[in-house]
Amino acid sequence: MRTRTPLSRLAAGTALIAMALTGCSVTTEDSGAEVAVGAGSIKKDDALVGQTIVVGSKDFTENIVFGHITMLALKAAGANVIDKTNIKGSVNVRKGLLAGEVDVYWEYTGTAWITYLNHTDPVPDSRQQYDAVVKEDKEKNQVVWGAIAPANNTYAMAVRAEKAKEWNLRTLSDLAAFAKSKPTDATFCLESEFAGRNDGWPGMTKTYAMNVPKSNIRTVDTGVVYTETKKGESCNFGEVFTTDGRISNLDLVVLEDDKKFFPIYNPALTVNGATAAKYPNLTNILEPITAKLDDETIRKLNERVDVKGEPVAQVAADWLKEEGFIA
Question: Suppose 57 and one of 17, 85, 217, 236 were both cysteines; which one would form an S-S bond, judging by CB atoms 3.0 to 4.6 Å apart?
Fold first, then answer.
C-alpha cells in the first residue's frame, strides 16, 4: 500500500490542506466528464436520493479508481456526488474526512493502524487488524469503516515468470534458499524507502535469514524497479506493490510471503461519522462491490489506466457493468 510515512512527517498547514482538497487531476480530468449510470443490482436508496456526497481519494491510480467506482455506485443509489478524487497527500484526504470536507474515501487497514492510530507493530491477521482498526477509529475519530476487500496492497518481491519456473520459486522462503545456493543470481532492485524500512528490506532479510551483499542490491525509482526486474540485467528480483497493474503487464510473478512478514493493507471505504449516521445504508451499498476487489481484479483495473492509458471513469464504469452493479 502506498504512503506509509509517519504522520508527523506529513503534517500540513491549513492552507496547504485546503489547496489539496480541491481534488481532481490530469488522471481524473482526462477520464471523461460523465458516465451514464443505468439500473443494475444497486437499487435506489431513499435516504440518499437527491442528497450530495463528497467522494475523495488519494493521489495514485488505484485509489482514484476506487473513488470513481464509489461515485458511480452512489449515483446508481440516487445520490449526487462531488468529485474530490486525487487529493495530494494521504494525510490531507484523511484530514478532509475528519473535518467533514470529504464524506467518503478508501483507506487501507495497515495505513490506518500504523500511520493514523500510531501503532508500531502491525497485526499479522487480516481480520484481527481490521477489527482493531474499526473499533479504535470509531472510538477516537468517529470514522466508520465499510467491509474490507480481499486485496492486500502490500510490499512483495517479484521475479519474471520464466525465471520463477526455471528456478522453482514460489515463496520468499524459496528465495532465501536460492540466495544461498546461487548468490550471484540473487540480485535485487529496491526503492530507497523500502531499502531502509524496518517493514521493508532489513526486516524481510532478517525474517527470512537472507544475507545479500550490498553489491547485489540496486536502489532505483519505483517505476524502474518493474522494468529492470523484467529485463533481468541489473537485477533478477524487484520490490513491488501487490496490486500494481505492471505485474500482469510485464508477466512478473509475486513470491508468496509465507512467513507473513509484510504488513497487511486491505482497502475499505471509510466514512465521516456524521455522514455515516445520516446515511446508515451507505456502506452496505458498497459491500458487494468491495467483496469483488481481489488482487487480480485491482491489478487489471490499474493496468488499464496506467499501462493502456484508458480513462479511469470509463474503466470503473466498465467493471461495474461487467459485474452487473450498474447498466
Answer: 85
